Amino acid sequence: MPNIIDGSLPVVQARTAILTCMDDRVDPMKLLGLPPGDAHVIRNAGGRATDDAIRSLVVSVTVMEKPEIFVIHHTACVMGWVTNEQLRNLARRKSRIDVSQLDFLAFTDLDESVREDVSKITSSSFIDDSVVVTGYVYDLSSSQLREICRR
Amino acid sequence: MPNIIDGSLPVVQARTAILTCMDDRVDPMKLLGLPPGDAHVIRNAGGRATDDAIRSLVVSVTVMEKPEIFVIHHTACVMGWVTNEQLRNLARRKSRIDVSQLDFLAFTDLDESVREDVSKITSSSFIDDSVVVTGYVYDLSSSQLREICRR
């Protein structure tokens, strides 16, 4: 979408916004067969649809011509193996840092975590209803994407 | 760091945490010459050190053996070209969505935005003082990384 503001905005070629985990064993561009420059890739611990992820998605949806959103969580994700409490204890043991105020957004049910995050995006008043959002689980062992839900 | 909780946590090989922009023209693994599986890559609009980015960094620092953090912003970044107000107007024009409550974290000075985000991380009470944090600007035209600051 060139020149959307006043001619000075650099061309935004990207057409896809991906929300996924920070674990770089997940290569979302490769998984979705996208060429370089074709996506906005938002990554955080767990690939969770936090307020900040939604801030980024709103930027994507605003500057892209006809965007599509993909949410990809994965097997063997640290955020699905530990609880908030275990992470807090570990941080305390390792660096004597008190992170008792932090919600790490750990989850216990992988498929459900995808449904939850897709739902947070589709129910956000900041994301237009016409935007297609698809949720996947990526299996690190089989290198397969499994669709969980779609709006 | 294997077996950090009770033997059931998958091995975390990653040793580097990178905070960068969601624009996939920036390939942080390639830029830093890291092999696959060696990093946690946190990405959002602008590569900003938001509370959610810090949540992810705390997870990285907690589960990695001896982590190092890199902050990479880049030239021709949408977040450095538009203001919050322009993005809000654009969203309103495009989808009639009111995003007046959203702070998009746009910036005007690229180098300063890196210094600001490195400072947010190093001053966070959740990140141990011993963690090295380095801030860079990546020039998309010359494909060069320029160091801005380091703690």
Kindly describe this structure.
The first copy, chain A, is 30% helix and 23% strand. The first copy, chain A, has a 5-stranded mixed beta sheet with strand order 2-1-3-4-5. Chain A has a single domain (4-77, 109-150), classed as 3-Layer(aba) Sandwich (Beta-carbonic Anhydrase, Chain A). Chain A has 151 residues and is of the alpha/beta class. At the A-B interface, strand 2, helix 2, helix 3 and helix 4 of A face strand 2, helix 2, helix 3 and helix 4 of B.
Mean pLDDT across the residues of chain A is: 89
Largest sheet of chain A: 5 strands, mixed
Strand content of chain A: 15-25%
> CATH homologous superfamily of chain A - what is it?
Carbonic anhydrase
Number of strands of chain A: 5
Structural class of chain A: alpha/beta
What's the architecture of chain A, going by CATH?
A: 3-Layer(aba) Sandwich
The largest sheet of chain A has its strands arranged as 2-1-3-4-5
What is the number of helices of chain A? 5
Q: Helix amount of chain A, in percent?
A: 25-40%
Contiguous uncertain segments of 5+ residues of chain A: 1-9
Helix-strand topology string of chain A:
EHEHEHHHEE
Instruction: Tell me the name of the CATH class of chain A.
Output: Alpha Beta
Query: What is the oligomeric state here?
Result: homodimer
End-to-end separation of chain A in angstroms reads 24 Å
- Do you know the CATH topology of chain A? Beta-carbonic Anhydrase, Chain A
Major interchain interface with per-chain residue totals = A-B, 60 and 60 residues
Q: What general outline of chain A do the C-alpha atoms trace?
A: globular
Number of domains of chain A: 1
The gyration radius over C-alpha positions of chain A equals: 17 Å
